[in-house]
Amino acid sequence: MRIALGLGIVCSLGGVGVTSAAAQTATQIVTFEVDAINQIAVAGSPSLVISSATAGSAPTSATSSGSTWDITTNQSGAKVTASIGSAMPTGLTLNVSLVAPSGATSAGYKALGTTDTDVVTGITKVNASGLSLVYRLDATTAAGVVSSGTRTVTYTVTGGT
Amino acid sequence: MGTTRVLLVALLGLASRPVPAQGQLLVSGSPPPLVVSAATAGSAPVSVTNSSTTYTLALTLGTHKLTGQINAGMPTGTTLSVTLAAPPGATSQGAVALSTTPRDLVTNINLTVASTRSITYQLSATSAAGVVPAQTRTVTLTLTSAP
Question: How many domains does one find in chain B?
């Protein structure tokens, strides 16, 4: 009776998994990839008011700093374009200038229209934040008095490979 | 009496079997693809993780450790890390970046019962890594004696 019980204990230990040294490794196959990523964001809601001029000259342009923009792209040769939702009143021009991230090129002040305009080009595999973004509003004397209006400026990062 | 003698011989035969030096290591399978596909503007791409697989260690005799390595280097700017949750009494080394040389993942393993714990993979990429087409790496986990 005792002998039979002892045999049972030994067998149960074997069932727990005491094994030979041959089973010391295990493998897994890990598949991975990185997709194309292009993200842009802007911060700030600038307000521009033209209210002065030097006698004999056109009204003095207004600028609005303090806005910033951020970008992440893992592609090469990407660019940022900008456009506004509807045309500016006659005689008014809304311009924007973006500081470029490292290795890219800013177009400087560019007049915004309803079609896309390149504002930064040559953006390659970078993430950068807090880059300066400046608006400038120009008006001719012929524009006259223009009541307050708003425009939505849309920025798009595109074109990378 | 004759029956008793037969059982005794069988018992002695099992008990004199050489004591295994190391336990058994099993994994539950391979994880699904890890795909980095998003970022917050201004920041590096968002890392992805997966904890769907597990490993099981059977009884170990003596102190052991688990190491991990991959069969080929990762593309520049990408990192494949793995975290193995530790069995009772053992120590996980946390997230460990895998390379072609073995890295300690869990140390001080001294099990008296089988234990199943999670495996967590993390894939991270810098923006400079660019677009990386799908590829695979074989991750080898090895249980070795570590006195």
Answer: 1
Q: Which residues of chain A have pLDDT under 70?
A: 1-23
Whether residue A33 contacts residue B35, with contact meaning beta carbons closer than 8 Å, is answered with yes
Is residue A25 in a domain? Answer: no
Average pLDDT over residues B58-74: 91
Quick one: which of A33, A113, A13, A114 has its CA closest to A74? A33
B121 → chain A, closest CA residue: A30
Counting beta carbons within 10 angstroms of the beta carbon of residue B41, is it exposed (0 to 12), middle (13 to 18) or buried (19 or more)?
buried
pTM of the model: 0.80
State whether ipTM is beyond 0.90.
no
Contacts with A, B 32-71, CB within 8 Å? 32-45, 53, 55, 58-59, 61, 70
Dihedral angle at the C-alpha atoms of B8, B13, B16, B17, nearest 10 degrees?
Answer: -150
Burial class (CB in 10 A: 0-12, 13-18, 19+), B74: buried
Domain-located, residue A29: no
